[in-house]
Model the fold of this input.
Amino acid sequence: MRSVPQQYCPVFPSYDLDAQFRLLRLLDRHGEVPVPRALWQERDPSVLGTPFFVMDRVVGRVPPDLPPYVFEGWLLEASEEERRTLQDRTVGAIAALHAIDPVKAESGFLEFDLPGDTPLRRHVENQRRFYAWVTQDGIRHPLLERAFTWLEAHWPAEEGEAVISWGDSRIGNVIYEGWTPVALLDWEMASIGPRELDLGWLAFMHRFFQDIAEAVGQPGLPAFLGSDDVALSYEHQGGHTPRDMPFYLTYAALRHGIIMSRIARRSVHFGEAEWPEDVDSVIPHHATLRAMVDGSYWS
Done:
């Protein structure tokens, strides 16, 4: 695991390229999850200035972040049937990932070596420590801290089976050929945890972009990747009925809020922005997260 010097103001405190490379190799061996083939890893930083690994090139198209796919592009222009196909096949790829037995696959290297008696407890503890690292400058976020408190009050009664969790399971991290995933990308947030971690992140990250579209008067894609549809599609393809989706959607919003807080600090660090009076306002989806923890989002 490689720590990045603070002067570079990285988003995450460390980047475990070894684990990512090992996981890609593991998934490629199992053959059911579409990932780029990892060819080799170079740990010597003198070659390019930093360690790296090399993957096969995968040809296809990716729903863009800038501008977001809810504003323009091939996905917005697609038919409802085509988007439904893409949605269901993406959920199917996640179900295939979760079908891999994490014990038989020897994926224990993805476990967080942290206090907690379940994978979800350890996952949340990891996020608490990430938040503590982000706010070590003394600027704290009352909204994010309220969200952590909300999680404790709404903890799932039954967490369910632990699986290999992609972590950054959003369509912007997928290469598609037509409407079919041919490569799942960005595994730096992978872990062991409940299935709903990935389902909540998938649905929330679309909601994040959809809210931006609606805020500026654009229709976006309101019928796409809804949490109920995602859960139903997963049940049909994965043979598991997702539980406690409001918990996992809120947790996804919290996790994304910590990341966006760090990105705001990067902007301040590089002289591109200043801190506003309301520090929670640097979290673009603060209104959504506030509604979640207040209970009005679910009414």
